[in-house]
Request: fold
Amino acid sequence: MFSSLHLSPDVETNAIVPVPIQILTLTLTLVLQVADHAHVMRSN
Reply:
């Protein structure tokens, strides 16, 4: 276990890095959708 972890630190970073990016994209899309919905409600 430990030897494999020491041999592949890049694999760990590659697995850890995309998670915050996915969360950011999800929150951004949600905020944009809510903003569009609010804008439509105001115009009506």
